[in-house]
Specification:
The protein is mainly alpha-helical. The chain is built from 8 helices and 2 strands. Helix 2 packs across helix 5 and helix 5 packs parallel to helix 8. It is elongated and about 55 Å long. It starts with a helix and ends with a helix.
Length: 134
């Protein structure tokens, strides 16, 4: 570990991707999206098919599942998925949320902050999801 810490000495700024790096939210995104798709009579459990859709943007997944979908429909579905995802996140107990956080994350971030490093989070998720997750 000390070799890794020595490699970080000359770095001042660290950018962390939120989804999949800091917090493994893929399952939660899939669960929320699946609930919306069921309402649309698209019966696929995305959380059971994560490997197929892992890392894909909601827009890409929707276009694969519903090839003739319009941009307006996509935006409406994504908005509803985000609403359901924020609800899911709020309902998680601290212990449940802890299972989605990357092991060792807090210790590593504390180490960087103790070294006066600048840390920032980046994400392709919408602001409402970023704020709720953080």
């Amino acid at each position: 570990m000390s070799d890794k810490r020595n490699q970080l000495k000359n770095k001042q700024t660290f950018l962390f991707d939120m989804d999949g790096t800091l917090v493994n939210t893929e399952f939660l995104h899939a669960k929320a999206a699946s609930s919306v798709l069921v309402d649309l009579k698209i019966n696929i459990k995305l959380e059971d098919n994560i490997a197929q859709f892992y890392g894909m943007a909601d827009t890409e997944v929707l276009k694969m599942l519903v090839p003739n979908i319009t941009q307006i429909e996509i935006e409406k579905i994504i908005g509803e998925k985000n609403h359901r995802l924020t609800k899911l996140l709020r309902e998680l107990s601290p212990n449940e949320m802890a299972q989605y956080i990357t092991p060792g994350l807090f210790e590593f971030m504390d180490h960087l902050l103790d070294q006066n490093k600048t840390c920032a989070v980046v994400s392709a998720s919408e602001d409402v999801i970023v704020y709720e997750t953080l």
